[in-house]
Amino acid sequence: MSNSYNPSNPTRAEVDTLPGLVLLNFGTDWCGHCQAAQAGIATAVAEHPSLRHLRLEDGKGRPLGRSFGVKLWPTLVYLRDGHEVGRLVRPTSATAVRQLLMQAEPEGT
Fold first, then answer.
1. What pTM was estimated for this model as a whole?
2. Which of 42, 69, 84, 88 makes an SS bond possible with 100, Cβ 3.0 to 4.6 Å?
3. pLDDT digits (tens, 9 = 90+) for 71-102
């Protein structure tokens, strides 16, 4: 996984058609909150190898973040088949991210 936020974001229409479980991670490389949260996010995501994790650069003029109502960084938006199933703003631990990721887990896993 790259430690940089990708400045080339997909469109909202493209995100809405992504199959399976996807974690959108909105932020910027220079954001202190994003830097502080990185280790916990990376730890929790590593425990879910089938999860698609997209680190998306956000800010003024970035329509994808606005379409999800992102106001603070980092904001994690958890999707299943293009539909939001959970959200976490400024996570402070891997435990918080794990709790988010459990929201869309099929029963019995």
1. 0.92
2. 88
3. 999 999 999 999 999 999 999 999 999 999 99
